[in-house]
Each structure stands twice: as structure tokens, then as C-alpha cells.
Design a protein that fits this description.
The protein has 325 residues and is of the alpha+beta class. The protein is 34% helix and 30% strand. The protein has nine helices and twelve strands. The protein is globular and about 65 Å long. The relative contact order is 0.16. It binds coenzyme A.
């Protein structure tokens, strides 16, 4: 039998070092081999601070061995008076049981409750019944879903390149310039992309109030190992940045995927988001990438429509659960 005896999980936790991010990426890859995670990317993000978020990470151990990871994450309470707090974590496939997942979540809940959390949040993939059962048994209720998609760049090649041509013509007519961050010579360009992202960030459907992102955090994303300035597409009208779309390219292992697409409220509905997404996938095709993924909230109508009409197919998405303390 896999897993542990029902009455005793024997788990202990030690604070994680940034280098443990690679172990977390390995665990997630072992659990979902169709969605490999990149150890280089995890190590980078596990070594970054955040101005507005409090994040804690642990390695779960049993019988002298590292078997899993566990995390808590919440906004600084002064930034989000509602006090939502995420708990998470998982273990190697051979160690996985409802009791073990339950013990991981319980330990992380205890931490954030002691910290002052008011509403607990946890996440599960739609096709992970073991985790879903564990979460529901801990008293959580489903809050909202995220849709995940995959686009086959070989099967949709001609259609996507034709859509890219049509979008380029439309942007020329509209007076919108589409270029990469590497091609832009405005010294304030990253600040402008950040400001635009903050405006658009408030329009992403969500239950929990969004916490503003610090400019420093944004710069850390632009400098992340999966992000390249010459693959970072922006839209400009004169001196303003009015759109952004970025595909992340995991350097060691994993599937190329959209990190973020957003447009300024002043240009919505004029094809700017589609034009930017088309440039990202046309570039991926030119680089020899065979497929890309993306994800968005299941209630985000305009981006669902763009993804559908580009030829993205639905894959298993995620469910966010909430539980008041
Ligand atoms: C999602 C977003 C990027 C779309 O930007 P945009 O510049 O308006 O997009 P486009 O003009 O290229 O395309 C919008 C398409 O959605 C359609 N659309 C708009 N509202 C819609 C709705 N409520 N239901 C269905 N379709 C809708 C438009 O008709 C258009 O379709 P078309 O290309 O077939 O004409 C923008 O709304 C945004 O920044 N939102 C906040 C950030 C966000 O949610 N980002 C994506 C998820 S992470």
C-alpha cells in the first residue's frame, strides 16, 4: 500500500532554503509529468523577497527523509484588511495519501491562523480527486475556477500566422505600435508597463481583493530566468504603453506559457490584446516551439474568447477553495 498508516503521519517541517525550490519543482513534476516544472525558475522565485506579501516555505520530512514541501502566503495585513491567506504544499507520489496531505494543510493552517488570518485559501487541480477530497473534508468550499488551455502550434500554424498578419494590419490602421521591450528605448518603459499592469490587474475577476504589486517586484519578474526582453511584447500609442503580453520560456524543463496579457482600459476592444498574443505565438513558432499553454479565471470573458478563437484547447484547470477561520 502507498502512503502512511491512517493514524500517524510522522511529519516534521524545516524552513526551506531557496535551493529547495528545485525539490518542489521535482515533486510537482513527479505528480504531473504532463506539466513539468522548472527547477531553475523555482529556485529563482524561492530566493526573492516581496514588498507586499509574506511568504513562508518549508520542507516536509518523514523518517529522516525530505518527502514534500509546504507553503503559506498572504498579503501584509495592512495591505489587505480582509486577511486572506493561502496554504499549500504536496509530497512525492509514493508518499501521497489523504492523511499526509491533510497533515500538511493542517500544519500550514495552524501557522497562518496564529498569524491572524481570517479566511483560508487552498488550490487544487480539477483532476486531482485525492487533494479535492482532502480539502473538502477540511471544511473548505469551492470559490472559483481557473481555465487552463493548450495551443498546438503545429496544427494551428497557418491560421495563427494569418491572424498575426491581419492583426498587424489592424494595428497599423489604429496607430498602435507593437514591439518588444528589447526594441524600446524609453528609459521609463518598465515603469510604464508596471503602471498599465496595475490598472489592468484590478480588472481580473477575483474574489479576494487584489494587492498592489510593487515596482521592485515587477522588475524581479522582468529579470526572471523564464522572461526575455526580446520576447516581451508591448503595445504603444505615442509615449504611452497600452498593452503587454509575455510568454515565459522555462530554461531547464517545462512548457512555454503565457505569464501575463493586459491592455489599458482606454484601448480595450480594439484588437490590441489579440495582436500582442499573436506576436508571442508567432515568435514561439519561429523559435520551433510546438505548443504553448495559458491560464485565466473562468469568468474572464474577453480573454476566454480570444483564447478560444486562437485555437486553444481546454486542459485541466484549477479550483480555489475558501474557508473562514
Ligand atoms: C483581457 C484583456 C487583455 C482584453 O484586452 P482587449 O484589448 O480588449 O482585447 P481585444 O480587443 O484584442 O479582444 C477582445 C475580444 O473579446 C471580445 N469580448 C470583449 N468582452 C467580451 C465579453 N464580455 N464576452 C465575450 N467576448 C468579449 C471582444 O469582442 C474581442 O473579440 P474579437 O477579437 O473577436 O472582436 C483586457 O480586458 C484586460 O487587460 N483585462 C484585465 C487583465 C486580464 O484579465 N488579463 C488576462 C487574464 S490574466
Amino acid at each position: 500500500m502507498m502512503g502512511d498508516p491512517p493514524t500517524k503521519t510522522e511529519l516534521s517541517f524545516r524552513p526551506a532554503a531557496p535551493s529547495d525550490g528545485a525539490f518542489a519543482a521535482d515533486i510537482e513534476t513527479a505528480l504531473r509529468p504532463d506539466s513539468p516544472r522548472d527547477p531553475v525558475v523555482y529556485r529563482y522565485w524561492w530566493s526573492q523577497p516581496d514588498e507586499h506579501l509574506e511568504i513562508a516555505r518549508f520542507i516536509a520530512r518523514r523518517r529522516g527523509r525530505d518527502i514534500g514541501f509546504a507553503t503559506t502566503e498572504h498579503a501584509r495585513w495592512d495591505m489587505q484588511p480582509e486577511r486572506y491567506a493561502w496554504v499549500g504544499g504536496d509530497v512525492l507520489p509514493a508518499e501521497r495519501s489523504r492523511e499526509t496531505l491533510d497533515a500538511i494543510l493542517a500544519a500550514m493552517e495552524e501557522r497562518v491562523v496564529a498569524d491572524g488570518a481570517a479566511i483560508l485559501c487552498v488550490w487544487a487541480y480539477e483532476d486531482d480527486p485525492l487533494r479535492i477530497e482532502t480539502v473538502l473534508a477540511r471544511g473548505y468550499k469551492e470559490d472559483r475556477r481557473s481555465r487552463r488551455w493548450e495551443l498546438d502550434l503545429d496544427a494551428n500554424r497557418e491560421k495563427l500566422l494569418a491572424m498575426t498578419d491581419a492583426s498587424r494590419a489592424r494595428m497599423r490602421r489604429e496607430g498602435v505600435r507593437i514591439l518588444t521591450l528589447a526594441e524600446d528605448d524609453d528609459p521609463r518603459v518598465i515603469e510604464k508597463v508596471w503602471r498599465l499592469s496595475e490598472e489592468a490587474g484590478d480588472d481580473v475577476p477575483t474574489t479576494m481583493p487584489r494587492v498592489p504589486e510593487a515596482m521592485e517586484a515587477y522588475v524581479r519578474w522582468v529579470n526572471a530566468p523564464e522572461v526575455h526582453r526580446d520576447r516581451f511584447w508591448i503595445a504603444r500609442v505615442g509615449g504611452d504603453v497600452v498593452g503587454v503580453s509575455v510568454l515565459a520560456y522555462p530554461p531547464a524543463r517545462g512548457i512555454v506559457g503565457t505569464n501575463w496579457t493586459a491592455t489599458a482600459r482606454s484601448v480595450r476592444g480594439r484588437g490590441v490584446a489579440r495582436a500582442l498574443k499573436c506576436e508571442t505565438v508567432a515568435q514561439a513558432i519561429a523559435l520551433g516551439v510546438d505548443r504553448v499553454r495559458t491560464g485565466n479565471d473562468a469568468a474572464n470573458a474577453p480573454i476566454l474568447h480570444i483564447n478560444e478563437t486562437m485555437g486553444y484547447q481546454i486542459v485541466a484547470g484549477g479550483i480555489a477553495y475558501l474557508r473562514p477561520v
